[in-house]
Amino acid sequence: MLLIGSFLFLIPTFSHAAIAGQGMTSAQLLRVLGVIAAALGVVLLILVEFVWRDRFSIGGYHWLLFAGLFLLPVVAILGTTATVFEETKTVESCNSCHVMEPFVNDLKDPHSPTLAARHYRNKWIPENQCYHCHTTYGIHGTLAGKRDGFRHWLLYVTGTYQEPVQYSGSYPNENCLACHSQTSVWEEVRAHQLLKEDLTSNRVGCYTCHGPVHPAPPERTALQGGEG
Amino acid sequence: MSEPREERYTHGLSRRELLKLIGMASGMVITGPISAHGGLGSLWRRQPVVPVDEWHKGVCRFCGTGCGVMIGVKDGRIVDVKGDEYAHNKGRLCIKGILNRDILYTSDRALYPMIRHNGELKRATWDEAMELIVARFQEAIQQYGPDSVAFYGSGQLFTEESYTANKLFKAGIGTNNVEGNPRLCMASAAVGYLSVFGKDEPAGCYEDIDHADCFFITGSNTADCHPIIWERVMDRKRAHPETYLIVVDPRRTRTAKHADLHLPIYPGTDVALYNAMIHEFIRLGRIDQEMVQEYLTFRRGEETVTFEALRAHVQKYSPERVADLCGVPADLIRQAAYRFATARATMSLWTMGINQQSQGTAANRLLNAMHLLTGHFGRPGATSFSITGQPNAGGGVRDTGALAHALPNSRLVTNPEHRAEMEKLWGVPPGTINPKPGYHTIALFQAMERGDVKCVLCFCTNPGQSLPNVERYREAIRNTFFVAVDAFHPTRTTELASVVLPAAMWTEKEGVFSQSERRYHYVPKLVDPPGEARSDLEILVDFAVRMGYGDLIRARTPKEVWDEWRQISAHSPYNFAGITYERLKKERGILWPCPTEEHPGTRRRYLPGEDPMAQGNRRFDFYGRPDGRAVVWLHDQEPFQDPTDAEYPLILSTGRIYEHWHTMTITGKVPALRSVHPEWLMIHPLDAAEYGIQDGMEVIVKSRRGEQSFRAWITEEVRPGVVFTTFHSAKRLVNRTTADIVDPFSKQPEFKRCAVSVRPQEGSETAYEG
To answer: Which of B37, B74, B92 to mutate to test the interface with A (most CBs of A within 10 A)?
Structure first.
């Protein structure tokens, strides 16, 4: 457990310091470590079970099994988890699913009027733009964001999603209000005061008046990449 | 060290149980907020805050933008409304659009018929009320002839309802006294288009906004009054910041604050301004010669003239000459003209600021002329586009011809051929339709005042508040057998009515709306009306049958009426025979002309190849005109009919705010909007100082017709010499002061300009309450 704990502490260290200088993100490093650990684990188990079994005492055999079955998989899991948690925050990660192409193409269109494109080109959100608006603040927001991402991935790989894709449920306005609600511009708009209860309960989305956030479904076809 | 077993319990909880509970609690802490809405389902996906059984496609109840909405129903009630992503508004709604969810459930819905006895409205049965109405109408017709009765409708009725009323009165009862509130709203735009192109309604569409690189917004506070059209304009500017925005408005409205160039014109001087713009187009050499030679004719009154006459005419309207009259520096006019003419594609947007003037038709004609002369017409982004105020003024009233001078599809009652065509289409004997136009709105209420009109059926509008010089006409309503059919009671009209009938509204009935861009779209019936309320169509059909016109009014359901109407349209250049109920229920509305069920609709009219009604392969076919040429009208700026003087030194103009709609019968009772009371009068600090007015003080606005108190709001958003208030408040009726002067062509009253004085109310100290 101590080993795992130490490893967890190392993640932020990697992400912010030396690795960035080498042009490699922490997620990329952890992915490499995870792959190495997974490969080592498999090789170790094969060797221990079929080649080296007789060379070790029972105690040594159990320790090696412990390493192959537990320690190295833990490293592999941490590596993949870190990959999932870090790498999936990037716009590129979202764009890796074909269904997201119209959204990302619009995001990067310098002449698009959508909220997403305006936040992107004006650098109101400097990085990980998709993730920034699609996860809420705090651990619960992260969990909800990861749950959504996992579901999307599952639907995508199983081909069980339906076009045009739709946002599920009510969008958490907290994501917008965290930046906007403290501003005098926001406070001065009477409609915001009149709908305050609706806005804080997410009954009415900010995007209702200020959208569209992304291209409307009829516009998405034109923004779809060439290859299916 | 072993411990006695009983000591391992902590208040009866074993260590194992404690660990279990800690584990469960941790799990709940982590997943709790995720599953706060929608129970376990939220562990898998986000859940909506408001649970909905079914979503239905519909259209907003309010303005002429005509936004598509998705309406959420649960247990037989509307519980949520959101923007329709597939409609032209791309999912956007303004605050009124959002609050459609509450409008059916306000506290003042009319629930049962009422008849006035000894000055008081008393509950009655439908039979009693309808029998009384029919008896009074028949008695009046018998004694005084059919022109002693009238219908006064609304741009908020469904097309099927306005069409049926028009047919019943003109082809059945035999009077052209069919009017409605669009006379107060769109008449000048309609007469403008009709006299320029030969057919009413704009040639362009909303999509033009996405292509324009210069906007000329005049007489419209689009940002507050048509917010979703405004957002589309802003989209264009956000995506292409070089897009140039010119706003002409006496006030520094929210629209004007976004302008690149704001011309703070004095109300009622638009004709001078537009003549000056044309003067500049000619001086700059920006006239499209092909248009002049091939596609335009020039008229001064009845006289046909030439382009040279126009050139001579506008000589007296140089920017310098009109600058003082308009209150706009000549430089700004020149800049506006240069930008308008030299842009790649210029789009004009206007509404009541232009229409509600005694020269509203002239201003409309000149706006169209500015586009035709510079060639900013008929290309994507280049068009002259009038915005409508109500959800169905265009389709319901203008297209069906439900006005005193009109017959369906731009036909006129004074034209014998048009009458004969409609008599044939309606299956009534030749000569049935009265060749004499009925009373236009102001004339109608004056006829009521004189006692010439005895009985009026009034549907879905509130003339007791919305007419100009209203106190005079409130008396006329009181003295007439006036039937107010409305979804709300009390209103400033039902309080005067002889009979009040409760009507269904919005999704309590089905029917077709149209909006500013000629788009017909469908509102479904989703819930039952409250109490004994009935749809306006049911009431009209019942009235027709009881009056003995059952044979004429055979189409009695919305679909039957629509099918009859679209087939009739096929005999005109409006042809929308291809817009069936089946398509309307499936598609997000269709822009007419649309002659076949396979036709996708028409974005831009008069263009061969695009407009199915246009012939040939030239640049334009103005098929509404006998010679195929659009008309450029020459107009002079006329003297003001209600001029300012020493006694009435200020100009009063009226309008709306973002949160409320018209006379507030709907929005005034919606909980989220109840705290907004537009009972102020905007006045510039210079004027306030001159008349001894402090912010928040009760002031009296007095005109030649009457007076009304308001609370002063001192602001630089209005220019010196002009005061402004809304016509929303039922308590403070600004229309006690407005003028019932009408445009000579459109008969639309001049709400945007009248002379007033403002003085502190006696005993009023500053009463500013923050």
So the answer is: B92
